[in-house]
Specification:
With about 280 residues, the protein is mainly α. The chain has one domain. The protein contains twelve helices and no strands. The radius of gyration is 19 Å and the shape is globular. The two termini are about 35 Å apart.
Length: about 280
């Protein structure tokens, strides 16, 4: 029992260390634009706090995938450290993707410095989603080590895919984010987290074979997109917004209503992941 307690303490320290390393690297990457500690603590910049909070949360979620020892203590620590290094790399890749792929028309760092909460929400959602996908990719890995990396990349591709599809179906949504519409940022962030929950379930499980697992992943991912963007919207519009529509609430920047909608989408994603996928 004492051994297990000490093991958990060591793994908790390792996880926190990865979060702190992430902070140090973030500080260096953004120091020419702002000092994060000052802008958050002295200037109350909530947009930058959202980026930082989502980033740290994403690391913590992903790191719990290998927190229980499955081999000797030393081997488990090495395994956790290697996974943590990969997870940090994945989160920084997600940051690059947020700036160059998801919100490509603006410089995210500059917008966050200006206090654009909508951009901060999208980034936070992307980092939490990345953490969920990384968790699934490394949880109980029974196949070759490379399978975790492959399924993480596939998961990220599908995550960006749902963002593109949602942007196509709601053509002005990203312009609203750029202009600081909090509801727009909140809905995109919520959809990414909801879809990441579905992808997490699609990725998790024992490795059978490349052909079987990749086929199963894509079937689950496509079913998840259809149910989340079509079925979930119909349910919410007809049952939970009887006097309005999601698009209208975004247009009016009613982020109280959008928060309720995002909560419902995540709840529906949990049901889809448990019952359907």
């Amino acid at each position: 029992m004492l051994y297990n307690f000490l093991t958990m303490i060591i793994f908790a320290v390792l996880t926190f260390s990865m979060i702190f390393i992430g902070k140090v690297i973030l500080d260096k990457l953004t120091k020419k634009h702002y000092d994060a500690d000052i802008t958050i603590e002295k200037e109350d910049n909530f947009a930058i706090a959202l980026r930082r909070g989502g980033f740290y949360f994403g690391i913590a979620i992903a790191m719990t995938a290998s927190i229980l020892p499955t081999e000797g203590l030393l081997q488990s620590i090495i395994h956790q450290t290697l996974n943590g290094s990969l997870i940090l790399m994945f989160l920084f890749m997600a940051m690059w993707s947020a700036d160059k792929i998801v919100l490509k028309a603006i410089d995210n760092t500059i917008e966050l410095k200006k206090g654009n909460i909508s951009v901060g929400l999208v980034e936070a959602g992307l980092y939490i989603s990345t953490g969920l996908i990384a968790y699934a990719s490394f949880k109980g890995e029974d196949g070759p080590f490379i399978s975790g990396i492959v399924f993480f990349i596939l998961g990220q591709i599908m995550l960006f895919g749902i963002g593109k599809i949602y942007g196509y179906l709601n053509k002005d949504i990203f312009n609203k984010i750029y202009s600081g519409n909090i509801s727009a940022g909140l809905i995109v962030s919520g959809i990414m987290i909801a879809y990441a929950i579905i992808l997490k379930t699609a990725i998790c499980g024992e490795f059978v074979s490349w052909e079987s697992d990749i086929q199963s992943f894509f079937v689950s991912a496509v079913v998840g997109i259809l149910m989340l963007l079509l079925f979930a919207n119909k349910v919410i519009d007809n049952l939970f917004l009887p006097t309005s529509k999601i698009e209208k609430e975004i247009q009016e920047d009613n982020y109280a209503a959008i928060f309720m909608i995002v909560s419902l989408k995540i709840a529906i994603a949990l049901i889809i992941a448990t019952v359907v996928i």
